[in-house]
């Protein structure tokens, strides 16, 4: 049973107190007990859509007594931490938006303009073409120094010489093979067939006859006497020696083990078992039973109480963190509204109703007319300069024609230039 569940005695006392306080409910329970018992399985079983809610009766009195003070103390401790954390988060977001992002964009732009794009241009316009040219030159030089000489040596020197040497070796090998066949193989084959084969057959017949005779002599001179000697001399002597060895070395030790050592060993084992049993009982009574009682009646309740306290502290920290978040949100929301009403709203009103209308008036009534006049003046100056250039060309062409007499083609070329 869980340590946090109430015992049956406390439950029965609570039911008796309820029945005493509300006597009508006892009669209703007595009359409708069968109906409740019949409907109990349908309402008591939790389902996936209606999970069983945790019962307050499963919580012990320690949890109920500790919960409210712990939550109050933890809320008082966590609230400053949560407000400081929210303030740091807001300051971090403001610094990120106001300082870090512009700084990062500026550094990125400077890096791209001053370092990345010049390096890319140098690589694309200088280093890559130079590297490709150097690579092509090095490849051509390597081929000229290391590949083409060896290819020419192989193709025009070594390959023809090798083919000639192979043809010469093949001719010499064929000649030597023909001479060896007729000078060595044919005479050796005739010598083996006409002389060595009959001589070998005769020597084999003589060896077989001599072997049969020696085998018969060995059987009657060695095997039969040795078999008789083993059966009638060595076997009885071996049996006597085995019996003597058992009488001298085996039977005394067997008797010593069976009638002396085994009874003494059994007695010693019985004594050791008795002493071990006594020591085990003594150790159990001196160590195991006290430690078990300490664990069962001291450490287990203390651990359960500490677990309840730790669980309540954890729940209190969670509730306090959420409550402190709501409080921090309200406080900082109020401060944000006050700052917006005090600083931002006047600045926005001034911008919308004073600065922006003035700026638009200056832009429409002063800047745009001045810019249009400057552009018109620039166009007029450029047109005057172009007309002066054209008149100067025509004057030079007239002077050249008057002095040197140029052709119409040259005149057109001069005028076009």
Automatic annotation (TrEMBL):
Alphabetic keyword roster: Membrane, Transmembrane, Transmembrane helix
Transmembrane parts of this sequence: 135-153, 165-184, 190-217, 229-254, 274-295
Name of the protein in question: Integral membrane protein
Region (Disordered): 1-53
């Amino acid at each position: 049973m869980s340590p946090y569940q109430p015992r049956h005695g406390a439950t029965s006392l609570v039911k008796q107190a309820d029945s005493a306080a509300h006597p009508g409910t006892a009669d209703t329970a007595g009359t409708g007990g069968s109906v409740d018992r019949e409907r109990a399985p349908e309402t008591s079983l939790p389902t996936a859509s209606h999970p069983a809610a945790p019962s307050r009766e499963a919580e012990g009195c320690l949890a109920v007594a500790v919960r409210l003070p712990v939550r109050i103390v933890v809320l008082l401790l966590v609230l400053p931490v949560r407000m400081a954390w929210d303030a740091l988060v807001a300051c971090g977001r403001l610094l990120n938006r106001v300082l870090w992002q512009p700084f990062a964009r500026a550094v990125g732009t400077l890096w791209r303009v001053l370092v990345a794009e010049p390096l890319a241009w140098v690589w694309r316009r200088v280093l890559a073409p130079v590297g490709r040219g150097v690579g092509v030159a090095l490849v051509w030089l390597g081929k000229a120094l290391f590949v083409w000489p060896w290819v020419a040596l192989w193709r025009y020197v070594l390959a023809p010489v090798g083919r000639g040497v192979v043809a010469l070796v093949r001719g010499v090998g064929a000649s030597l093979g023909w001479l060896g066949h007729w000078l060595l193989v044919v005479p050796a084959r005739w010598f083996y067939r006409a002389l060595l084969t009959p001589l070998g057959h005769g020597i084999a017949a003589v060896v077989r006859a001599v072997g049969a005779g020696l085998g018969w002599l060995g059987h009657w001179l060695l095997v039969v006497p040795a078999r008789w000697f083993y059966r009638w001399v060595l076997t009885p002597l071996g049996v006597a020696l085995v019996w003597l060895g058992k009488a001298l070395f085996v039977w005394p030790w067997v008797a010593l083990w069976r009638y002396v050592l085994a009874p003494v060993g059994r007695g010693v084992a019985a004594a050791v078992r008795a002493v071990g049993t006594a020591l085990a009982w003594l150790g159990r009574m001196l160590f195991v039973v006290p430690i078990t009682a300490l664990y069962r009646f001291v450490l287990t309740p203390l651990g359960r109480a500490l677990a309840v306290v730790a669980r309540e502290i954890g729940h209190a920290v969670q509730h306090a963190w959420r409550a402190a978040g709501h409080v921090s949100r309200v406080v900082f929301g109020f401060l944000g509204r006050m700052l917006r009403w005090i600083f931002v709203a006047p600045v926005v009103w001034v911008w919308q109703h004073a600065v922006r209308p003035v700026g638009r008036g200056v832009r429409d009534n002063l800047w745009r007319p001045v810019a249009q006049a400057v552009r018109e003046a620039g166009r007029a100056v450029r047109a005057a300069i172009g007309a002066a250039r054209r008149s100067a060309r025509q004057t030079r062409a007239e002077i050249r024609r008057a002095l040197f007499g140029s052709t119409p083609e040259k005149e057109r070329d001069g005028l076009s230039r």
